[in-house]
């Protein structure tokens, strides 16, 4: 257990670890091989009261903070990357955005259902024509009476096949650049809104990715989060905190790989004894454990800043950058320690090796995190 966990976090960690071992882990191979959305796992998390975690109770959420959320995401990530992605997207990208930027009526309408797991959330920023450069998004929302009329396409949207509530970023006028972007909530059955699954991912295969097509889709003006033109700022603020969830997921993936490699190294024999007796293997385990610990500490620092309401953009970018790349190095070593066994399914390290890869891409690539961190350094140096 971690010395910086509170008693409550320790209890939470034990509860989720048990749930992960009994419910999530046994289904992880099926989730991966069949690209199966982890619906049963989400139901179980709802029964544990964890689908509104970190969202204010006053807003209809389950209370608790980002540090608590990190505890849960790490435990899920250690056994099933897809489940941790689905869970993190539902809370930190979708429900949190509505809870933070919605008005009272919007909170009452959507948050209790989301916190109870009756409605799953998604977040739609990326488009075929633009990902990192979100300012260039081209899905339009033109006002017509009490509605906006949406036209355009989003892609790579996590949770889409199961989601009921979509936070969608649109532009009213591309010439206005960031001042023309808004965030709207679009409900699943809205006419003119189609969801086309995108299959064939390398990893996180159960996390259900889809294209969203808006064809003269009418969305009430009442569904706007904040005001017209605030969407770009809402997207950046959401990603600033949500990236901490990806960092926690990476801590989980790396810990899962480390645990499997440690067990394997003590059981597999070569040249007259367990391979863990060979210093080359033991030192790999030492480096892996050190990286897991460093990633967790950075993640907890960033989560603490979120909880305290302090600036956290640079720290969350650092945590995501370091934890995702550390998880890549750890997964690489874990496969190496498993030898040929680690190269075949259903070895957990084979799955983690694939699941980890996207953590360096989604919610801002590693290059974009380096951009955020270096800009802050250079701005500070320039006064
Ligand atoms: C499995 C999966 C799930 C996803 N889920 C969601 C989701 O739920 N919602 C959502 O909105 N999006 C989602 N995404 C999209 C994801 O956030 C984008 O793929 C990501 O932001 C990168 O955008 P892009 O793919 O368009 O790459 P591009 O932006 O085209 O980048 C291509 C390459 O150029 C580099 N690059 C771009 N700009 C710069 C720069 N200024 N300096 C240096 N290098 C640069 C990038 O780092 C990258 O290496 C998901 C993606 C995947 C793969």
Index terms:
10 helices; Butyryl-CoA Dehydrogenase, subunit A, domain 3; alpha+beta; four-stranded mixed beta sheet; 383 residues; globular; four-stranded antiparallel beta sheet; Butyryl-Coa Dehydrogenase, subunit A, domain 1; 10 strands
Could you give a quick summary of the protein structure above?
This protein is an alpha+beta fold and 383 residues long. The chain has helices at 7-33, 39-47, 66-79, 81-101, 104-115, 231-267, 279-308, 313-338, 348-357, 366-381, and strands at residues 121-124, 140-144, 147-158, 165-171, 181-187, 193-197, 209-220, 224-225, 269-270, 273-274.
Architecture overview:
The chain has about 375 residues and is of the alpha+beta class. The protein has three domains: about 5-120, Acyl-CoA dehydrogenase/oxidase, N-terminal domain (Butyryl-Coa Dehydrogenase, subunit A, domain 1, Orthogonal Bundle), CATH 1.10.540; about 120-230, Butyryl-CoA Dehydrogenase, subunit A, domain 2; about 230-380, Butyryl-CoA Dehydrogenase, subunit A, domain 3, CATH 1.20.140.10. Helices cover about 55% and strands about 15% of the residues. The chain contains ten helices and ten strands. The chain has a four-stranded mixed sheet with strand order 1-4-5-8. The chain starts with 6 loop residues before the first helix and ends with a helix. The mean pLDDT is about 100. Flavin-adenine dinucleotide binds near residues 126 and 131.
Overall domain count: 3
User: What's the end-to-end separation, in Å?
Assistant: 42 Å
Poorly predicted regions are none
CATH topology descriptor of the largest domain: Butyryl-CoA Dehydrogenase, subunit A, domain 3
Number of strands: 10
Give me the CATH architecture of the largest domain, please.
Up-down Bundle
Query: Which small-molecule ligands are present, each listed once?
Result: flavin-adenine dinucleotide
Rounded mean pLDDT is 98
């Amino acid at each position: 257990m971690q010395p910086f966990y509170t008693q409550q976090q320790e209890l939470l960690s034990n509860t989720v670890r048990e749930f992960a071992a009994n419910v999530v882990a046994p289904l992880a191979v099926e989730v991966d091989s069949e690209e199966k959305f982890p619906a049963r796992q989400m139901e179980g998390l709802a029964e544990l009261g964890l689908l509104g975690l970190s969202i204010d109770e006053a807003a209809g959420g389950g209370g608790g903070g980002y540090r608590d959320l990190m505890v849960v995401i790490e435990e899920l990530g250690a056994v099933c990357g897809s489940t941790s992605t689905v869970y993190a997207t539902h809370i930190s990208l979708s429900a949190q955005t509505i809870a933070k930027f919605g008005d009272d009526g919007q909170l009452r309408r959507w948050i209790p259902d989301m916190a109870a797991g009756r409605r799953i959330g998604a977040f739609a920023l990326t488009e075929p024509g633009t990902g990192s450069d979100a300012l260039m998004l081209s899905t339009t929302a033109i006002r017509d009476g009490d509605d906006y009329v949406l036209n355009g396409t989003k892609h790579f949207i996590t949770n889409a096949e199961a989601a009921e509530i979509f936070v969608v970023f649109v532009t009213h006028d591309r010439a206005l650049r960031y001042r023309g972007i808004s965030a709207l909530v679009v409900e699943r059955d809205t006419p003119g809104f189609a969801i086309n699954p995108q299959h064939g991912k390398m990893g996180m295969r159960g996390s259900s990715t889809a294209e969203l097509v808006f064809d003269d889709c009418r969305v009430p003006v009442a569904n706007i989060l904040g005001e017209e033109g605030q969407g770009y700022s809402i997207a950046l603020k959401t990603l600033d905190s949500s990236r901490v969830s990806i960092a926690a997921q990476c801590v989980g993936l790396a810990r899962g790989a480390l645990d499997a490699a440690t067990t394997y190294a003590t059981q597999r024999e070569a040249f007259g004894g367990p391979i863990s007796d060979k210093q080359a293997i033991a030192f790999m385990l030492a480096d892996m454990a050190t990286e897991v610990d460093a990633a967790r500490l950075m993640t907890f620092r960033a989560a603490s800043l979120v909880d305290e309401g302090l600036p956290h953009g640079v720290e969350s970018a650092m945590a995501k950058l370091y934890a995702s790349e550390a998880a890549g190095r750890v997964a690489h070593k874990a496969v190496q320690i498993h030898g040929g066994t680690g190269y075949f399914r259903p070895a957990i390290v084979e799955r983690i090796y694939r699941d980890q890869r996207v953590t360096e891409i989604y919610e801002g690539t590693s290059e974009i995190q380096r951009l955020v961190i270096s800009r802050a350094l250079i701005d500070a140096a320039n006064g």
